[in-house]
Structures are given as structure tokens and as C-alpha cells.
Amino acid sequence: MRFVRLRHMVQGCYFPYEQYCTVAMITVSHLKALKHKANFMISDKTLSETTIAPKTRRQAQARSENAGKSTGRNFPFIWLIILAVGMLIGALVARQHYKAKDIVVAVNGVTIDKQELFRHLETMAGPKAVHDMVNNLMEIQYARKLGVAPTDAQVNAQYDILSKEPGFASSLSQNYQTPEDVKTAIRASLSQIAILTKGANATDSEMRNYYQQNIKPNNPRARFYTPETVRIAVIVTNTQAAGQNAIKAMNNGMSFQTAAKNFSVDVSTNSNGGVLPLIPRGRTKAASIPGFESAIFGMKIGQMIGPRKFAGKWWIIQCIDHQAAAVEPFNQVKDACRQAVLLSKVTKSDFESVQKGYGDFQKNSVIQAFWPEYKAAVTVQ
Predict the structure, then answer these.
(1) Distance, first Cα to last Cα, the chain
(2) What span, in angstroms and rounded, lies between the C-alpha atoms of 226 and 325?
(3) What's the distance, CA 341 to chain centroid?
(4) What is the pLDDT of residue 99?
(5) What pLDDT score does 76 carry?
(6) With contact defined as beta carbons under 8 Å apart, do 7 and 100 qualify?
(7) What mean pLDDT value characterizes the chain?
(8) pLDDT for 107-158, tens place per residue?
(9) Rounded distance, CA 318 to CA 296, Å?
(10) Can you give the pTM of this predicted structure?
(11) pLDDT for 217-234, tens place per residue?
(12) Could you give the residue ranges of the DSSP H alpha helices within the chain?
């Protein structure tokens, strides 16, 4: 029997939706048959009574009328039974529908529901998560006590910068985070910086000097400079003939991804269509291969070259994406420059003083673990 999209769970096993419909149809049909039988019996009895004596017939007619009234009262009762059965079946179907929504995965008919999943996640990561959340709250609270807590405007500004980075939305989804989770982390981070740098100052000249150091193309750690980048897919072969066979296959309709799987000897990429990680100019091993960077950074999106020989192998290269170098304007990163300058002025004695003050704040804080299993996670060391 074909299973419909909506599957219902009864005692952990799958049942076809049609079974519910069959039960309902049998029940209704059975009750209708009972009603028909009752009607037939009444008609037959009435017919037989026409052959008896008048007096007896009048008595029989009275009994028949009374029976008719009684039977008439039973018919609505029968339909009430039908309605009740239908409602019961509908409620059961709805209950199983909503129960099925809680099923996360099934393995050979054995299910894992949301409650089991969350319980497992809690066991695996619950104590650490609670510990981190408590620390974040305490850092924010300590910053407020010192009068240096970050404002909502500062938190939102940092969030706006982060949210514009490539892959931000997908990262949120993969880590099961919400924007509010990120903002809480930002607030805690800004609180740490504010606590450490309390009382320090950063001049405009210091901030601009830091900015200039971090937009230099030859600085591999430049924060505000993004070098030219390219993303490529490759088919690497040991011989030129093998590379030409791959080209011939693609000319005959084979996709680049399939050709990479069938022809490429590069085991790190042949299973994913030949795609390499993003390559920033001058910052990967590709820069050490003679002629390789000039070849790939001279390509346009969608262009394919090869087979060409690099580092003893024959390469067929397809350009997937190509982005020019970029420098973030000073006005957009001014706060980051200020924070960096302030942190550079923190001395060892400053750090030790902050540690002592924060330690005293922790010891005087009232931390209550209402679930016994989290007592150790919130205990101040």
C-alpha cells in the first residue's frame, strides 16, 4: 500500500493513512446497514399486522405507532454515534499529524524525535553552553557596574559590519544562531574591551596610523585590505594526453564536474567537481608555482584554459568567481581602529588589576543553578 506524505506514528511504527480511512468507512457502512435493517423490520411487521382482526389490528397499530416513535428517536442517536466515531478518527489523525511533526529522523522505522535530540544535545554541550552564557552575562554586568558598558548603537554598528561579510547568513543557519545570539556575543566582546581599556585614550593620529598599517597589500595580516581573489575548479592529469581526453569528453557534452571525477588525479578535489578553496593573490602556496597566479588571475568568470603544465602536472582550469581587491574606508572601521589602539596600551599591571576586580565581582555575584546538573557549570573558580 502506498504511503501518503502525511505519516502517522502509533507506538513508534508507521501506518498508512488509508487504514484510518478504511476504519471510518467500515464503521459508517456498518451503522448505515443497521439503520436499513431496522427500517425493513418495521415495514415487514406492519404488513403482517394488516391480516389480523380489527380490534387486534387497532392494538397492533397503536403498538406500531409507539414503536415508530421509539425508532424515530433511535435514528438520531445512530447518527450521533456515526458523528462521534468520525470525530474520534479525525482527532486521532490530527494528533498523529502533529506528533509526526516532532519526528526528526527514522532509522528502519525506529524514530528519533525532537525531545530525544534536544536531550542528547543538552547532555553533550549543555554545561559548556551554560558556562559561556553565565560568563557573558557577568562580563556585561561588570562593564555596567564600571560605567563602560557598550551602547545598543555600538552593538548594532558592529553587527551591521559582520552581517555584510560573505557567508554570514549561511553561517548563522549552520550554527543554529539568531541575530540576537550574535548581538549578545558582540556585547560581551565589547564589554571585555571596555573593561580592559577603561581610562585609556586613543588619538585620531594613532587611529589613522593603525589604519594605514592595515590596508597595505604586502601586509598578510592587514585587517582592512581584501586582496584580489579567485575561485577555480581544476582537472589535474599526469599527462597532456589525459588532459586532452578530458577536454574531448567535455566537448562531447560531459560536465566539468563529471570530467573532474573521471579524469582528475587530484584526490582532494576530484570528488567535489574540482573546486579549490578561495585563492587570495599572494597569500597561498599557489604564489610559489611559477606562472600559476598570473594565469588564474588573468581569467574571467566562466572561462576555461588548459591543459597547461604547472608543477609537473597538466591542469585544466575553470574560473568560477573573480573579485577585485578592496579597501575598507576609514570611517567604516574607525571604531575597530580605536579599540585596537586602546588594547595596545594595556599593560601587564592593567591586566592583573582587571582580573582581580572581575574576580571579586564574580565571588560576590549570586549565581543560582535551579537544575542540579548545572551546578558545576556555574561555580566560580
Answers:
(1) 62
(2) 6
(3) 37
(4) 54
(5) 59
(6) yes
(7) 80
(8) 998 999 888 988 888 888 888 889 999 999 999 999 999 999 999 999 998 8
(9) 9
(10) 0.58
(11) 989 889 999 999 999 999
(12) 17-49, 54-101, 114-146, 152-163, 168-174, 179-196, 204-213, 240-251, 256-263, 292-296, 330-344, 348-364
Q: Which letter, b or e, does each residue of 180-210 get, where b requires 16 or more Cβ atoms within 10 Å of its Cβ?
A: eebbbbbbbbbbbbbbbbbeeebeeebbeeb
DSSP 8-state symbol, 275: B
Q: How far is CA 104 from CA 135, 173, 280, in A?
A: 32, 17, 40
Which region holds residue 277: left if phi is over 0, alpha if psi is between -120 and 50, else beta?
A: beta
Alpha carbons 338 and 57: distance in angstroms, whole number: 111
Residue 73 has pLDDT above 90, yes or no: no
Q: How many CB atoms lie within 10 A of CB 286?
A: 20
Contact 223, 336 (CB under 8 A): yes
Report DSSP letters for 85-105, one per residue: HHHHHHHHHHHHHHHHHTEEE
Task: Catalogue all structural domains in the chain, each as residue range(s) with its CATH number.
Answer: 8-101 (no CATH), 124-218+330-378 (no CATH), 228-324 (3.10.50.40)
115 phi and psi angles, rounded to 5 deg: -65, -40
Express each pLDDT in 45-57 by its tens digit.
Answer: 443 444 444 445 5
The whole-number pLDDT of residue 213 equals: 96
| Centroid of chain to Cα 301 | 30
**Could you read off the pLDDT of 236-289 as tens digits, one per residue?**
999 999 999 999 999 999 999 999 999 999 999 999 999 999 999 988 999 999
Q: Which amino acid is at 370?
A: F
Phi-psi region of 300 (alpha: psi -120 to 50; beta: other; left: phi over 0): beta
Q: Are residues 197 and 225 in contact, defined by beta-carbon separation less than 8 angstroms?
A: no
Give the Cβ contact number of residue 36 at 10 Å: 10
pLDDT recorded at residue 51: 42
pLDDT at position 54 is: 47
Whole-number Å distance between alpha carbons of 315 and 239: 9
Q: Which of 140, 148, 135 is nearest to 339 (CA)?
A: 148
